[in-house]
Each structure stands twice: as structure tokens, then as C-alpha cells.
Amino acid sequence: MTSDTQKSRFDAVPDKEGRFGVYGGRFVAETLMSALAELETLYRKLSADPDFQRELDADLGHYVGRPSPLYEARRWSEQLGGARIFLKREDLNHTGAHKVNNCIGQALLAKYMGKQRIIAETGAGQHGVATATIAARLGLECQVYMGEEDVRRQALNVYRMKLLGAQVIPVTSGSRTLKDAMNEAMRDWVTHVDDTFYIIGTVAGPHPYPMLVRDFQCVIGREARAQSLAQTGALPDALVACVGGGSNAIGLFHPFLADESVAMYGVEAGGHGVSSNQHAAPLSAGSPGVLHGNRTYLMQDADGQIMHTHSVSAGLDYPGVGPEHAWLKDIGRVDYVVATDDEALEAFHRLTRLEGILPALESAHALAYAAKLAVAMQPQQVIVVNLSGRGDKDIHTVAQIDGIEF
Amino acid sequence: MSRIAGRFRQLAAQGRKALIPYVVAGDPALDGTAPLMHALVDAGADIIELGVPFSDPMSEGPVIQLAHERALANGTSLRDVLAIVSDFRRRDTATPVLLMGYANPVERMGYARFADAASHAGIDALLSVDIPPEEVAAVHAELQRVGMDNIFLVAPTTPEARVAKIAAQASGFVYYVSLKGVTGAGHLDSAAVSQRVAIIRRYSELPVAVGFGIRDAAAAAAVAVAADGVVVGSALVDAMAQTIENGGDHAAATAAAAALLADIRRGIDRQAPVDIPRQGY
What we know:
The structure holds two protein chains of two kinds. In chain A, the strands form three sheets. A six-stranded mixed beta sheet of chain A has the order 3-4-14-9-10-13, sandwiched between helices. In chain A, strands 1-2-12-11 form a four-stranded antiparallel beta sheet. The termini of chain A are far apart. By secondary structure, chain A is α/β, with parallel strands linked by helices. Chain A has helices at residues 4-11, 30-47, 50-64, 74-80, 99-113, 126-138, 148-153, 155-163, 178-191, 209-217, 219-232, 247-253, 282-285, 323-330, 341-355, 361-375, 395-401, and strands at 19-20, 23-27, 70-72, 84-89, 117-122, 141-147, 167-171, 196-198, 238-242, 263-271, 287-291, 293-298, 335-340, 382-387. In chain A, helix 3 (50-64) packs across helix 5 (99-113), helix 5 (99-113) packs parallel to helix 6 and helix 15 crosses helix 16. By secondary structure, chain B is α/β, with parallel strands linked by helices. Chain B has one domain (3-270): Aldolase class I (TIM Barrel). Chain B contains twelve helices and nine strands. Chain B has helices at residues 3-14, 33-42, 62-73, 78-89, 103-109, 111-121, 137-145, 160-169, 190-203, 217-224, 234-245, 250-271; strands spanning 18-24, 48-51, 97-101, 125-128, 149-150, 152-154, 174-177, 208-211, 229-232. Chains A and B meet through strand 2, helix 2, helix 9, strand 11 and strand 12 of A and helix 3, helix 5 and strand 6 of B.
């Protein structure tokens, strides 16, 4: 079921210039080029170092609480009347989302590099919380850039970061969301490049970030693959994950890429619908360009300006996507689809009521598409959905939509 | 010889340093940029660096970020920037004009189409902040085809071996970024700049211009001791923004930028006689 040629094809990216086909690369100002080269050299050395891997694994086990369960959502599956749906429970990780897998890894890199200060960008706040958490544990100074609009939408996570000792800096430029937070984090990094480690939260940015974030997130797919075999006796028929920058999706997909029988669906934020221009679905409705250090699919206008995006979920509200996803789209290995705000909200309520699990609104996009997919499949078939985060942070947003004020 | 090379040669013969103002095309007004460029030339500009507005200007400090936002609010596209330079060229065919911007608008237009249109408009060079030498091959080939210069940045963090690599691809001049930070930052160290400029000269015969964080005549004069040119951006953009904020019109903003540039010109020219010789590094 696994083709070795296929496997080597997927292991061969990125190449030494950081390219996934024509995507990826390192499009940054000269000031950062040496820091990126230094990070790449260190990462390549440490990723082959058993001591580093042991330290990482110990943290993932004892601090994050891995492995996360693969849970069969029986009531929900039965109600849909199609395939069996299993949830990869990244929401049960410490800090409540998959983001911490990557933060633990990058914080270890920062420690080996002797950096005393950590910065991060955040959208929904999950990556900011995970970064602030690790910084607290390691005693590092931490500043998190967050769009002013997201600070408002995700007040709970803002307070969590403050409790953890991080400073949250609201970003007031541009559209005041995740992309602008990333611009501001880059500006900070370029100014404090000697003593600061920038923990990018997704599989985007300049090389080597898309590679190393992927590698740190692949623990999701490695576990899910082994758990599927143990719990169902076979590989799943389909994988479904939401895609903003795309780190939870690549983490689930990558260890299965060479398994030709496994279909994969990356679900982008359809907002008010892809024909409305009010969405965040660059793979489904965008075109290739260069932003935030890499070439990838973007939401841009005819003049190459980056467009404002819309999604009910702050974590998907981003006009770009990781370059590996751009490549996987072009070669046809993964299908990229959308779920709208309304579909995601419906899935949020459905899972909460039927399984007692509050999903993050980001993950609810994956659930919404999985529900459609399941109905068209056979009862003996298996879908694994990445439940990338828990929905506690979104209760305020959902309540507001339901007309409830606290 | 390119217009930029010619201008530096002419200045060197006069024992003068190049003054390179940076403004964002379309800020404060789309139809005001060509007149602003003429005013800057009249105030002592040797080369004009024209910023191409972009929605995500990652290397810019707050002053120039706001200028990009204003220019975009005025509807300024890359095609408009080319039209502005065409307009400027009707009265001035001598002053070199270089575009400074980000990869995506050029990428979106297409490298070949951009090169044709830019050279046709009378643009002499491109400085793409986020296209380092590792990513430049495709655009470099197109610029070369139409005889445009390709300006590269060298940073305080650039190792010496990399300076050599950059110098090998650069044409026109080498742009030394005088500090670790964004445009308009405030921690310029002119002694450190002199040392770094000396290193660049070991690897390149090209003139070296210095920019980022040079905000007044004194700073410009200090940097001009070691460099062949000085880029001034945020200070000019801020002077215009302040004028408009205080109720001035576009003509008043242009006059404010021109007055500041003239002051910086005098600062640099006073410095010129004590220029240190180029040999001996």
C-alpha cells in the first residue's frame, strides 16, 4: 500500500533551497538571511541527533500529554449514516490545540541557540498561548503579536497569555489580523535578530520554517497512522483537516502521503462563500505569489496586493497558505475544499451535542466537510478528522452569533 | 553606461556624494508624485528612489507603512507607478529613478512584462527588498535583458563571504542597510557603518549608498564620509505627513520635503572636502 518511489518523492521536499516544486523558498530582507541559514544548519544537525529527539519526545509525552487519542465519534457517525468518523484529539493536548507540538520543538531549538527572548505571531491565540506557555516553562522573555481585531475576538486567550507572563502587542496596521501580526513579528525579528528566536506558528514563512514546523507536527500523523492500524486494522480511507496556514493538516497528512489508498482533504475557510470575496481560501480561489518569505497561493488582487480575508475563525483568517500545500494541490495529491462560516458553526453545535466535545471553530471547518464526505461513503469506511483544537476560546464568538451577551 | 553609473561617475569627478530621496509613489496624492520628484531634484536629489506601495511592507517602519497605506487608499498600482515615471521623464531625462518595493506586485505583473514596461517608462533599476540573491535569477535575467540595474541590499548581519556573492550580482550601486531594523529606526552608528562600507569595497567596485535611519543633515553628513551616497526616506515622508496633518495641502507637503532635502544636501556638501581616500582598506 505504500509505494517507495512515492515515499522518496515526498521525503525529497523541500530541496536545499527550501522549495516544494516552485513554491517555498526564502523571500526575506537581507538582514534575516544569515539568521535563517544559522537556524537551518542547527536544525539539520539536531534533527539527526538522538539526544535532541529524546528530549523532544519526553516533553511531548510528559508535558503535552501525547499520544493524543484517536476517538471514534459513534453517535455523530451513526446520525450521518455513512462512514465511521474518528477524531484525532489534538484538543486534548496541554494548551488545547496542536500548536504546542511545534512550540515545544522550536523552543528547544531556541534553547540550543542560547536565545533569551521569544516572539510569535498569533491569530486565534492558540499559537500565542502555546508559545507563552513554553516561554514561562523555560523562563524566557516572550512577546506575542496579535492583530487588534483578533485581540477583540479572542479576549480569553489574550488574558491567558498575560497570565503566563507574555506581553501581547496589538497590531493596528493593515487588516489588523494574523497577516499583519506576522508582518510585525518579522519587523521585530529584523530589529532584534541577535538575541531573539521567532517561533512561527504555521508551515509558512521563509525556509526552513515550513520544513521544521511540518516535522514537529508530523507526530500527529505518525500517531494517527499507528492508531488506525491498531484500532481498525487498516489505514483510513480519508483524512480531513482544516487549512489556514496549514500546520495541523500537514502534520496529519505528511506521514500518509505515500499511502496511495488514503484520500486527503484540506478544508479552507469559505467565510460567506468563495464567490463572495469574503473568505480565506487561497488554494480554492487564489493564485500564486510571494508573501511572508515564501512563494505560495495567495488571496490577491490583479495588482498583486494582498486582499482582506474573512472567516468566523481567527485561526483560518489568513490570505496565504504553507508552500507544501500549494505543491500538494498542484500535483493533485490532496484535494482542497471549503466549508463556510455557517457550515462550520453547524458542525460546532452538532459535535458538541452529539459527542460532548466542543471543537475549535477552525477544526469545525474540517468536521463540516467530513460530515458531507461521510454521507457519500460506505459504513465500513473510515475517515480521520484532525480535531486540531478545543472550542472554549470560541464560546464568546458563538454566543454572540446566537445573540447571547454575557 | 547606465544612467545610475553615469550619475555616480559625474559626482565622483566633482568630489560630491549622491543624495537619494525615497518617497512612496501615490503618497500623499497620485497626481502629486511626479511634481514631488521634480521638486526633490530641484532641492538637490541626484537619484530618486520611488517606493512601490504594497499591502504588506514587512521591512518598513511605521512612518513608511502609513505612506504605503495612504498610497493604496489612493488606488496606486504598479502600473500607476510606471505611469508616474513616464510623466516625470517628459521633463527630466537625466535623473536616475529606481523602484524599491516587494516581490509580489512585480511577480503578479510578470517579470518580463515588468521589465519591458519599466524600461519603457524610463526606470533605471529595481531594488526588491524581499528578493535576495538566492531567489533573484528569474527577475535578474529580465532586468539584464532590458539594461536595468539590479540593486541589492547588504545588511549589518551579512557575513563577508556573502558580501562577495551579492557584489558579484549587483549593478548600479550596493545599498548598505545601516542598521538592524526597519526603515526609519533610530539607532544609527556611523562609525560601524564606515567599517562595513569598507568591507563592501573589498568586494565591489560599485558605489556604495547607505540608507535606513538617516533622518537629518548631521546623520547624512556623518554617513557620507564613508559612503558614495545617502538614502533619506522616513524623514521626508514624515515631513509631508506632518504638513498635511497640520492642515497643509499637497503643495505645502512637497515644499516641506524639498526644504528638508535641501538642508540635508547642504549637510552632505559641507562634509565633502574632508572625504577620506578610498584606498588603504
